[in-house]
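Training component of the fellowship. As part of building independent skills, the fellow (R.M.) carried out the full modelling exercise for a liganded target. The chosen ligand was S-adenosyl-L-homocysteine. The inputs are recorded below so that the supervisory panel can assess the work.
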Amino acid sequence: MGKLIYKSLPDMSKARNRVDNPKVIFDEVKVGPHLAKFAKGKKYVIKTFGCQANVRDEEILSGYLEKAGFIKTDNDREADLAIINTCAVRENAEEKVYGEIGKFKVNKTNNKDFILCVCGCMMQEEGSADYIMKTYPHVSLVFGTHNVNKILDLLEEKIARNKKLVDVYSFAGDVIENLPSVRLDSYKAYVNITYGCDKFCTYCIVPYTRGRERSRKLEEIVNECKELVAKGYQEITLLGQNVNSYGKDFHDGTNFSKVLEEVAKLGIPRLRFMTSHPWDFSNDMLEIIAKYPNIMKCIHLPVQSGSTSVLRLMGRRYSREEYLDLVDRIRKTIPGVALTTDIIVGFPNETEEEFEDTLTLCEKVQYDSAFTFIYSPRKGTPAAKMIDNVSDKEKHDRFVRLVKVIEDGVSKHAESMVGKTYKVLVDGPSKKDKGVLSGYTESSKLVNFKGPSFLKGHIVNVYINESHTYSLIGTLLDDPILVLASSLKEKIEKEDSYIRYIECKNAFESSSFLKQLKEEMEEKQKQLVNKSFKTDEDLLPLKKEIDELKKAYFNDPVYLNLQSSIADLSSLLEQIKDNLE
Ligand code: SAH
Ligand code: SF4
Ligand code: F3S
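Fellow's submitted model of the complex:
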């Protein structure tokens, strides 16, 4: 086992730094010679914890690994390389990570070349990397959230020097473009629009683990989305810790509404965004959401607490009243909107009255769904230094009471959907029953219904028969074969060979030269028939003339192009047919 080298370690005070201007860096994928040799035919697995930012990082890591030659596997035990992509937002997220690291010990025992990497937000915390290297000797490489794009260089160095490496930047706030990626889904996608967070809510570790807030250029976002639309994606979710503070770092007035509008205009069937912060929620944004039917009428609006005094201590920058006003404004501008939220119970010194404020707020808002968490102190954050007089038991009891109130509201929404028809984007067969499909409505409600698995990735109409708190049971209204046929039509229309066929057909139909040749040919053929009783001498020159015309017609480049494009299109249709069989 190689020696351990610390290239860099995180420092929370440096992570607070917000000074530099972000630079845009266009990355180039380079595979070192040792890595190329190692990766050939080897299998990898990535285990991701935490939020969508980590899921997107997993896709980018996969992009790099596959460029190097690694192949993905679903079987953890046959992996030659494993990456554990960690989350630090609450203590229980961290405990799961240690369990996962432990499980990969057997890979190292069976395969001395096995490489275990640990990355993600937890690695950005002081002491984590060191603890992991000391406790788990089978971990070979640790890196952080700011050097995901250095994965191939780190692996090359690790293999070439036969050393274990730790490289976690404390502060890096550039925007890296040109990132390779292998998306986990072929019909719904996450697109980063901002990285990091500058809000510094007092309980939260994210601003330290993900760095300063920085926006991607609108052009880069639009190009990525355009590509997804061209590939037939059905849903895009724009991602950021605070999507609606997009563009603040440009100081030129570019804002989130502009991103929403530009992406909506590309015609993606479903456009979502997460997470929006109540403090940055503008009227502009509301108007754009209301204006475009393909922007889903579903807003995740974390409240965290219903008490103004707790909100102040949390550093959330809005009061209970301001939040409720915003909810009113949203509901007035976007009728039928679904609202979801995040709530923390048991913030240090939260009183019974303050907690009850959260309960009454939830009763008022009637969320469609909510993520509820018990406060978890995060080392290095201001709230972790607050003296806390609320017992664990009290926190737990409040949590149970809150969940009850939330579930009442959620159930009411679910019940109100029974007897109506909703559009559902199908995720595929449900985990519990392969004969049942599951998918989400525009308002992000989970629906289960019977249907064939080939509907995965399609949007279908489902009638709701029955409701449970967190899911609905429905009946598919569309004919599955017709859904498939119409989606194939849309896909074929985007294929190069189809586009070429249409171009060639148009050129053929509008060629006056070919039209003239054809008319002449037909005219001469008529004469041939009329002269059929005369001698061969009369017929031969006429036949020759017709042959000349035919030669010119069938050898004309416009005609030949059309024939070859018909052949290309036929082979594309054959391929589709083979895939369906
Ligand atoms: N940027 C997003 C999400 C951040 S993390 C936002 O601002 O909404 C997701 C959720 O985890 C937060 O909304 C919050 O409810 C919860 N969370 C964050 N830190 C926490 C902590 N220390 N203890 C418990 N829950 C926490
Ligand atoms: Fe954390 Fe607050 Fe930033 Fe969300 S807005 S990531 S809760 S600091
Ligand atoms: Fe967790 Fe990092 Fe996301 S701490 S919630 S994975 S930004």
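The panel noted the following from the submitted structure. Residues 76 and 103 are 9 Å apart (CA to CA). The first strand starts at residue 4 and ends at 8.
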